[in-house]
Amino acid sequence: DAAVAIVADLVAIAQELGFKAYISEWVKGAALLDAGRPAAAIEPLAGAAASAGETGDVGAASSVIGQLARALALAGHVDEAARRSVEARALTSPSDRWSALLWRGAAARVYAAQGRPVEARTLADEMVAILADIDYPGIEFHARLDAAAGYDAAGERGAAEALLRRAVADSSERGAAGFARQAEAALARAG
Fold it and tell me: Contact at 8 Å (CB) between 63 and 95?
């Protein structure tokens, strides 16, 4: 909640420093998504996605659209999440592991919601493989939760719970109480 409270300051700083206009909305949406408020993150992320696409900033667009797809999936807007995930996938370069995790995470949640466990598990496996080469706690956190949702949908409770326990432990260890609470809630819902 503290992060959400200072978002207006971050937006003002980004604007004052002359960052591209969509960066401000991206920061706001990302902070809301990190705070576990996916429904509130949709509007700023949608604005940032549109602006990034208009400016031709493909690298940023793939990440913003991937985050938007995740927010939509988490908020229960499955059809729009599916569409945005496909869009993010098309823009993601082979070396962009963050965007690759984002679109896969959204798609895994879409497949879980659609009752497509084989596809959800396949994406969960792919995310776990990508996670082996990532060393960025925030990215790892969201990818673990998304992969856990894919495994849970496929009936692989042990794999889902292991990822969620790791997310709780890592978040607690680094003092990310908000992330730890989100992971604990996901662990309570698993299965």
Answer: no
**Residue 134: both structure tokens together:** 């990532």
- As given in the structure block, the two tokens for residue 91 are 């823009």
Q: How many residues does the chain have?
A: 191
How far apart are alpha carbons 9 and 7 in whole angstroms? Answer: 5
- Label residue 119 exposed, middle or buried (CB < 10 Å: 0-12, 13-18, 19+): middle
Q: How many CB atoms lie within 10 A of CB 130?
A: 17
Q: Which DSSP category does 122 fall into?
A: H
142 contact partners, CB below 8 Å, separation of at least 6: 33, 70, 101, 102, 105
Q: What is the pLDDT of residues 28-72, one digit of tens each?
A: 899 899 999 999 999 999 999 998 878 788 889 999 999 999 999
Low-confidence ranges of the chain (pLDDT < 50): none
